[in-house]
Amino acid sequence: MRIFVPCLALFLAFPLNSSPLVAQTDPGLSNLGWVSVGLGWGRGDSEGYVALGAEASILRGAHLVSGRWLGFLAFDSGGGRTAREAAALYGRTHRGRRHQAAFSAGPSFLRCQRWSICGDPDLPGDKWTYESKIGLAMSGQIFWTPSRFFGIGLSGFANMNSNRSFYGAMLALRLGKLR
User: What is the pTM of this model?
Assistant: First the structure.
């Protein structure tokens, strides 16, 4: 954590589109917006889970602002272990002619229902608990955009919170104004 915060601050402060190695885009297409939905997997502590996600994003120049929702269902034999995350993310992006790559981070709210990422994994099966956590959400994405309105790609996600952090990846579809 000590090294993560300064690295994140440096990354967000560095203008990605000023590098000669980064493809320049048409300034007339700089205001874009889309919705992404995806399905994937994740891991928290020693537990695997299925993840379902949705994200709405606005891109202005290289600045990306997103709202993200993730839902989780744990793989363990106890069953009924679920969690939901809502996050507000800010990040930087790179756009090429037919691809987009981005990294973003921001505050998140995690709501768990008898799930070991947030609470005690040894609860009896008939006792349900609810727990809420505030965390730092992170997202990394790379998308291929074969058309102006459709894209497909990989989205990685992570959340650092006070109890147990988690991470994962999903295959996602993106619809909206992409180029």
Answer: 0.71
